[in-house]
Amino acid sequence: MRTNLTNSLRTQLRLWIAFLFLTSLIPNMPAEIIFQDSFTGAVAGAAANFEATLTPLVSEVGCHVEMGPPPAGATAPRMRSSNADGGYFGYSRIGPWVENCVFTGLGDDVANAYINPFVITNAPAQPTNTFTLGLYNTSGSGGPPTTLSSAYLQTGDQLVFFNALTGVIFDQATVTNVNLPYVSVDHPVAGIVNGTYETNTLVYNNSLNADAVYLNNQFSNSRIHGIYCRADNMLIAHNSVTGMGLSAISAFPALDLASPNSFVPTNVVIMDNVLSDCSYSWEAINNNTSRPDAEPAYSLIELHQTAYNTDYVTNTFGISGIRILNNAFLNWRVVPLTLRNISDFHVIGNYFGPPITNDDLIPLGDDWVADLWVDDYSSMTFSGNVNATTISDNLAIAEDDYYTTIPNAFQNLTSPSLSLNLLSPPNINAVISWSSPAPGFVLQQASAISTSATAWTTVTNAPCILGISNSVTLPQKSGTIKVFYRAIQR
User: Fold this and answer.
1) Containing H/E element for 184?
2) For 72-109, what is each residue's pLDDT tens digit?
3) Which helix (H) or strand (E) holds 268?
4) Hey, which end of the chain has fewer CB within 10 Å, N or C?
C-alpha cells in the first residue's frame, strides 16, 4: 500500500488525532479509520484489501485496487488483483463512506457492509428483560457463539428478536443496561428459544450497520457482487459498476445464516449510477426467471430476502424505503431489475438499454425489464423510465410471474440539446451539458461536422450525472481551432 500525504489527508489526520483523544475518554470506543489515496495491486492480495470491524466511522477515499504487473518470470498477466473484498466492513455505527475509489479484478465482493446476529445463549425464565448474548458463529454450519465485546452493544440500541427457523420477528426492544454477557432491555420478552446455536433465538442490533455511502466509485471485473447494500440508511450514487460475476448492486438475505452477511436494507437511495455488463457466473446464467426460489444473480440490481426455498416471506425483516432513481441499466442479462418482498419502493427516471444478445444463453423473448415478486404493490411507484430495450412495454414488467402494465411506467426518449461553457483560467475547460434520463446518451466529438460514424469518437470522460442532468468537463488543448460535439443514444 502506498499512501500520499496530501494537504487534505494531513487535515484529516489532524482530525483523526483529535478524534483519538476524544475517544480515549470513552471506554471501549474504537477510533475512526480512514483509508485514503492508497494503491494496492503491485502484488496479488491474499484477502480483503480494506477491512474494519466495530468502527464508529470507516472511510475509503481515493483508493485504488488494480491489477499489478506480472511477477518475475510470468508468461501471462495477472488474473485478479486480490482474493477478497475491496472493502469488508462489519458492525459500523456510521459508515462506511466509500468515495472516488477504483477497484477492479477482485476475487470476491467489491464493497460489503455486513452485520451478523447475536445468539441468546441461556435459557431464561420467561418473560424476561435480561438474558445473555454471544455472536453467531458463521464458520461452517454454526458452532458455539463467540464472546461479545461492549462495542457491539450500547444503552439505547434497538434490538430485534428473530426466529431463524420461521423467519418471524416476534419482538423489538431498547437496551437499558449492558453488563456482558448480560443485556437488559426496556420490557420483558417472551418466546425466546434456547436451541443448538442455529436454532436459538437470534437478535439483530438495528443500531449497527447504518448510514453507508458509496459515491463516485468505479468498480469493475470482479468475481461476485459490486455493492452489497445490507445496511440501513444508505446512499449509492454516481458509481460505475461493470463486469461483475453476479449483480452490480445486491441485498440478500435475512434467512441465509450460513454466510456471514445476514441483513436486509431499509431507507436506501440508489441514484445516478451506470450499471452494465454483469452476471457472468454459473449462478447468474442458470438461475433464470423460471427459478424464482433462487438468487436472481442475473439482475444488475437484485434486492430480496431469501436465497432459496421460497420468496413468500411474511412477518420478518422488511426491505423498505427503496428509491431507484435515474440509473442507467446497460448490457444486461435476463432482467436488469429484480425486487422481491419489498414495500415502499420507487423506480423513477431510469434508462433501460438493450440486453446482451450475443451470448446464445437466454432467448431475447424470455427477457423482461423488471421482475417483481411478492411486493407491496400498493406502495410502489414505477414511472417515467425509458424502455430502450426493444421489448414492448406490455411485456416489460412481471408481477409474480405474470406480465402487467403499469400506467406511466415508461416515457419516450427525446434527443437532448447540448450546451457548452468555457471555464478559465488557469486551465481552459469545456463543460458540455445536456438533459436526458439517466444517462440515455453518450458524448462524441469530431474535428468537423460529418455524417460518417467513423469521424466521431466517443468521449471517454464519464459524465457527472445529477437526476436527468449530465455534464462532461474536457480540458482544451492550446491551439485547438475547432471541436464539434454531439450526443448519441446508447
Assistant:
1) strand 182-189
2) 888 888 888 888 899 998 888 888 999 999 999 999 99
3) strand 266-271
4) N
- Residue 488, C-alpha cell as written in the block: 448519441
Helix (H, G, I), strand (E, B) or coil at 19: helix
Partner residues linked to 469 by β-bridges: 435, 466
Q: Assess whether pLDDT exceeds 70 at residue 259.
A: no
DSSP annotation string for 394-450: GGSEEETTEEE--TTSB----PPPPEEEEE-SSS-EEEEEEE-STT-EEEEEESS--
Q: Which residue has the higher pLDDT, 457 or 295?
A: 457
Does 181 sit behind a cis peptide bond, omega within 30 degrees of 0 on the bond before it?
yes
- Strand order of the sheet with strand 441-446? 457-458, 441-446, 484-489
Residue 451 in grid coordinates: 455524417
Secondary structure class of 338 (helix, strand, coil)? strand
- Give the CB-side neighbour count of residue 173, counting CA atoms within 13 A: 21
DSSP 365: G
Model pTM?
0.86
In the three-class reduction of DSSP (H, G, I as helix; E, B as strand; rest coil), residue 342 is classed as strand
Query: Which of 298, 315, 376, 300 lies closest to 341 in space, CA to CA?
Result: 376
Residue type, 172: Q
Percent of the chain predicted with pLDDT > 90: 36
Report the 10 Å Cβ neighbour count for 421: 11
CA dihedral 87, 89, 95, 101 (to 10 degrees): 0
